[in-house]
User: Which sequence fits this backbone?
């Protein structure tokens, strides 16, 4: 029986959300997605599998049964974004280069708190962090350069290796099914429209006469919407049982 909300017995207080364990895993018993759709999370399934993706990628409800329950999410944790050293470098440099009047306004709060509100100490802390950030960015740039050099050398190595000759393709006669209506034949410099097909003898009618497809390997054909090609096709390899 349906009861309006005003007649329902409500709990005195909302249940406390589950707390994460020492590794940050939060238990999950099913329901609506606990975080925003674009939040990147790491999930652990009942079967032990672990996966990482944005939250909207996963199914958070528990509705499976039997062996499928191994795919249900039993714990999750939010993946913290990796700080960008380039952005940190820019922020620290801007803070160091500000003049005295606007130093407090531009100094990062954590630096100002660490310096106990003393400007020259804050400048020293900022300078140390700036040097560390510059070294980190220099290291990253060197890694990117090494990666680029490695990729370039790898491409040169691949280009220097002789390419194997392609395997010869064995060709076979066309069949009537390979020549749809509208196909034309070039025979001895003249173009003719195919007007008849005989699957029993694998022959076609053009220029008022029948011709076996096995005798037309030197002719060229053109299907509607395609380019000219020889009157043959690659032989299909037999599949071994």
Assistant:
């Amino acid at each position: 029986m349906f009861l309006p909300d005003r007649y329902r017995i409500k709990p005195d207080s909302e249940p406390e959300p589950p707390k994460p364990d020492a590794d940050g895993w939060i238990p999950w018993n099913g329901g609506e997605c606990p975080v925003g759709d674009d939040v990147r999370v790491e999930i652990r399934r009942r079967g032990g599998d672990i996966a990482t993706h944005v939250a909207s990628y996963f199914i958070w409800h528990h509705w499976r049964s039997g062996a499928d329950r191994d795919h249900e999410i039993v714990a999750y944790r939010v993946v913290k974004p990796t700080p960008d050293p380039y952005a940190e470098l820019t922020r620290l440099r801007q803070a160091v280069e500000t003049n005295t009047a606007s130093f407090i306004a531009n100094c990062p709060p954590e630096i100002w708190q660490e310096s106990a509100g003393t400007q020259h100490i804050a400048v020293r802390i900022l300078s140390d962090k700036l040097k560390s950030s510059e070294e980190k960015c220099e290291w990253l740039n060197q890694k990117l350069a090494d990666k680029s050099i490695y990729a370039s050398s790898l491409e040169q190595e691949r280009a220097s290796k002789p390419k194997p000759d392609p395997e010869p393709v064995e060709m076979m006669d066309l069949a009537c099914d390979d020549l749809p209506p509208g196909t034309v034949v070039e025979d001895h410099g003249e173009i003719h429209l195919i007007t008849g097909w005989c699957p029993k003898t694998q022959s076609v009618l053009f220029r008022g006469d029948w011709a076996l497809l096995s005798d037309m390997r030197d002719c060229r054909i053109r299907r509607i919407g395609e380019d000219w090609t020889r009157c043959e096709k690659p032989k299909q390899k037999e599949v071994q049982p």
In short: The chain has four helices and 13 strands.
